[in-house]
Specification:
921 residues, mainly beta, 5-stranded mixed sheet, 47% strand
Amino acid sequence: MMTSAAFRRLGVTLFCGFLSIAVFAQNTTVTGKVSGDGTPLSGATVSAGTKSTLADANGVFTLSLKPGTYTIRVSYVGYKPVTRNITVQSGQSSSLDFSLERGEATNLNEVVVLGSRSRLPRSNTATPVPVDVFSVTELTATGQVEPTQMLNLVAPSFNSSRQTISDGTDHIDPATLRGLGPDQVLVLMNGKRRHNSALININGTIGRGSVGTDMNSLPTSAIDRIEVLRDGAASQYGSDAIAGVVNVVLRRSKGTTVTSQIGQQYQGDGKVAQLGIYHGFDIKNGYLGIAADLRYRGATNRAGYYTGPVYTNWNVGRNSGESDAAYIARRTALYSQDQASISQYGFDRNNNMAIGNSLLRNAQLMVNGGFYINKQTEFYYSAGASYRKGEAAGFYRYPFQKSQVIPELYPNGFLPQILSEIWDKSVMAGIKFNTNDWAWDISNTYGGNSFRFDVANSNNATQYAMTTSAPTKFYAGKLGFNQNTFNVDITKDLGAIMGMERANLGLGAEWRTDFYKITAGEEASWKNYDPSSGKAGGAQVFPGYQPANEVNATRTVLGAYADFEADITHKWLADVAARLENYSDYGTNIAAKLAMRYKLSDVVSLRGAISNGFRAPSIHQRYFSAVSTLFVNVGGTLTPRQVGTFRNNSDVAQAFGIPSLDAEKSINGSLGVTLKPANNFSVTIDGYYIRIDNRIVYTSQFTRSNPVVNTILTPYPDVNAAQFFTNAVNTETRGIDAVLSYRPRMRKGSSLELSLAGNYNRTLVVGPIKGTDKIPADQFGNVLFSRQEKSRLEESQPRSKVSISGNYKAGKFGTMIRFTRYGEVYTRDAADPGLDESFGAKIVSDLSVSYKVAKSLTATLGANNVLDTYPDKLQVVNMPVPGSAGPFLDNSSFGRFVYSRNATQFGFNGGYYYLNLTLSF
């Protein structure tokens, strides 16, 4: 039996032994530099085993490794990864430099930091939640020139389709993720919150009643990559990140890139011209990139042949007690009168509507830079400005519509236009530094968006006494939204203290201020100069904002979060996060998240997450009010209606029994598997469930045909119907994402990349409509949220979207081919099931061929929708005719609409061909 003295001697011996091992097996430093095309690749990932780090602004990296043999892997988005074997010996420092070649990046094998507060990045297959990465090369290869349309082609869970005859939404594309709303997707730029648009979508479009972020205000030449986090991230980035997060990362590399594109639709319209220039400066201890874009997008028109009344309204209703024969005879006589006038004046039934893309002109500038004050301190900044002018048409006003047309001014009617002027601005500055192994990031971001409305080729019908001298152009008002966000983020690796490979603690705080403003238009744009005339007041197509609509509101949001991510074991990664936010107008909420990833083997991992979210009503939803001209289907005929949007806290809303706005609350769960059987092959499959309670919607229209509504709207003679924002429904969304990426080994000088990506999701409205107990059904409770609005949430976006693509390169030649299948969509009428429509799934193919004309010049000839595929045409087209008493069911508005404008899978413009030139030096 050992004595206490023997125990002490043994302890001293073991201690000295361990000390000698520590001395002789001490870590060794491996340093080097990463470059690509002669430019340092700041942010390149360098990994060896479980160790990894990022290159600094000069491309320099440092790794601390124990003695042994390692495979060092270096990767950077848009470049081919490089591996090299190295043997590390104790006490001997090593130096390795890496030069990467450009290559097509797939969206699965890239390294990302989105979704984690850790300073050390992970590959897509190693993250606990799904994140996609799309490089600028991959985005440019889509043949599109707008960021939202680029993402729409490469990200199956992302959806953005252009709208038509939808007022301001013709000029700013709504974008969604996983089938939810635009306001449930958080957009970041360089990891910092991006401000929303000033526009709120109130027409019959995707995202009706919501506010999104105008991603098309960013110059594509400034983008290095776009990261898409497909999971609820309210506890990490902000309570409105219910569907996920899109992070736009700006370029910071040295060199010059010039891109240009010209193209047009197969039908000869929709001409596109784009010029983008990026130049990265080599400055001491830092970087500076300047990007500028000029974009022109011509209008398209897919209107059909109009068969309805022009000068004389023959589509009249039946008089009381009138027989079928008498009714038909009266309609026929009026029709003959109308036909005679059409022949006399030569009215063109083929050229009186413009249904398609609006015309847009864009000019954009972005600066992104930073420099190292010392090895531990980096100052960074970015600033941008975007200017856009747009032209979009509304519904044609025909001469027989005497309440809307001044006949002396427009004897043949007129096609009114909405002219937009959109300014977008942003400036961000921050500093990163280290103190006692704590990494600090302090920043301030200010951004804003303004939307000015002008109306042209129109009239205010109540100015009829002015005849030909009445004004035809109006300033209709302006929307403005600005946001200032101050952030403090700190992180520390507690791995050594806790005995783990990694244990990252992240703490932070945010102070955000929102500013929202509505400015009234000129008097003639909104005023009714003769209420007793029965004519519609205000500018036709878009009555201006009135002084009563003006608002200048502010609110503040204070937030604080904590995030802990740890490799508990080599196989088990866990991340837990919590965020507390206080809204000055909606109180306090706590969001939390738990995410895990477990490696069953080096090939297979399981991952999953559960979180909750909280989205307070946007400041727009709380304070917006206006009177708009909307066309609604009444008895098979699109009829103009002046619809008033009243604030949720207004006396009118209270008279209707509309409950006060409250926050949306969500639960988000996901479970997935990742497989990486080889370095060149990876698979991820993730299922998800999202429950949103008290979802904010824009109600259906309460019309004056109801006596109760008529009484409430008595003080508003120009308003035919009322609408509000309210928490009305609960929804459940279930879906699955799957992405496969394969890069087969090819002979030297050639490469092939294959990918298969798909998304299936289904959203259902569940539970009773909130607030209907306060609205008697025999009055107007049944239209708070009609079957049309229910369908818009559930069925107007494709439930499935699958894309198969291949990219092959050999020497100077390259080719890309992609097939995308868009699932079926549906539309439902507010009241009549006979007007419901379904539109089948379609496959759209894209093809491009590129050739490297010179070392720095590449030419690409391509076509999107190369087979000129269109959605299904409208089927319910039983148009009213003079020789019948009806009933009639017509979704085409007397043939004007060939395709649905309310539910579009991929637009209805047909094929588009283009030539793209890229010059890099």
